[in-house]
């Protein structure tokens, strides 16, 4: 049992670290990010503080709000997810200090970020420890108002997108690509990671 728990924890942390790296790469590419990340970058541009710190601030707010909507106790493990993501994104953005100029380099960095993010999500899900605030909020809307997962995700992403545009966040063609391809990529990677985890646990 201890071995299984260690595997789950390692997958959870490694997945979040990779996800944050992918998000940082998409931000650096300046071709567009997901709606939530665009919102955090917009907040940084207008009000200061780091992207990761804004993620942590709003992550905490959404965790508390989700608990209220679902009328359940706050999942304190979700706070760990928020802090890991926020701190890691700031770390990667500090480490990746260059700003690409050539269009070809930007495209390459964006696609690398998209694949790394999707792969990271498929890994962190194997930990089965805690959802990200955005995913938790989606589930809360679904549970409280009887919406489908698709409708709940659309409402959450649409709200973030509106604020990201108002705050002049990095919203562009990459945002559309991320919106339509991140789900299928996660769906592609997830069953493969599940098989890998099951194989490791059975050894």
Automatic annotation (TrEMBL):
Keyword Protein biosynthesis listed: no
Keyword terms of this UniProt record: Membrane, Transmembrane, Transmembrane helix
Coiled-coil ranges from the UniProt annotation: none
Transmembrane segments: 9-27, 47-69, 76-96, 108-125, 145-165, 171-190
Name of the protein in question: Membrane protein YczE
Domain of life: Bacteria
UniProt key word Transmembrane: yes
